[in-house]
Amino acid sequence: MKLLLDKADREKLAKTVAQWRLALDPSDEERRGPFAMLKRADRAQLRRCAAPEDVLLQSAFHRLLQELKRQGVAVEADELALAAGVAAHAQHAPGKSFARSLGRKNDAGRVAMSELRFHQLQTCRDEDGFFRQARRAVDLLGGEVDVGKLAVELLQWVREFRHPDAALAPKERLKLRWAADYYHESLREADQEPA
């Protein structure tokens, strides 16, 4: 198994998860394609999942998994469950980076996620804990994040967690990329404050 998906598979995964998430949205009246059968209740069931293994029991999740397999994306059900469970809590906001958004100041003048909470997210020691932390992070963003890109990153987190690879270049490690994005945004915003 490859630790990182190739570019074509990352793009397919991102696009398909975004389509799937939009089909779960109750305001989406025009449902077509492979997810046309999804209903409002499917999203509600996914949002009640307390752990990735609960996501594995949902029919809406299996629709997503089947579509990805049909497209030839090499992803295992237990890997994808974490990403799908978190994505069910988000609203698709194309181009909105997860880690950068966490470091961006909100209307109250504070970063969306404190440095302490960000550190806790980065240092989770098990998948269930990371699932809860990632869902909280999405909630702190008001749910607005690029769902497809988030799914790709969460899948990478699962793979890096399960199969640590010391040979993986630092710029390709998700934790390091997230830290760079978070601190770049939070420090940039701090530099822009009037003295």
Describe it.
With 195 residues, this protein is mainly alpha-helical. 59% of the residues lie in helices and 2% in strands. The protein contains 10 helices and 2 strands. It has helices at residues 7-24, 40-47, 52-55, 59-70, 77-87, 98-103, 115-122, 127-140, 147-162, 174-191, and strands at 91-92, 144-145. It has a two-stranded parallel sheet with strand order 1-2. Helix 1 (7-24) packs across helix 9 and helix 5 (77-87) runs parallel beside helix 8 (127-140). The longest helix is centred in the first third of the chain and has 18 residues, at 7-24. It is globular and about 45 Å long. It starts with 6 loop residues before the first helix and ends with a helix. The mean pLDDT is 91.
Could you name the key traits of this structure?
globular, single chain, 195 residues
| Helicity, as a percent range | 55-70%
What's the tally of helices? Answer: 10
Instruction: Give the strand order of the largest sheet, numbering strands 1, 2, ... along the chain.
Output: 1-2
Mean pLDDT score, rounded? 91
Report the order of strands and helices: HHHHHEHHHEHH
Principal-axes geometry comes out as: globular
Described by strand count, sense and barrel closure, the largest sheet is: 2 strands, parallel
Distance between the ends: 51 Å
Structural class: mainly alpha
Total number of strands: 2
% residues in beta strands: under 5%
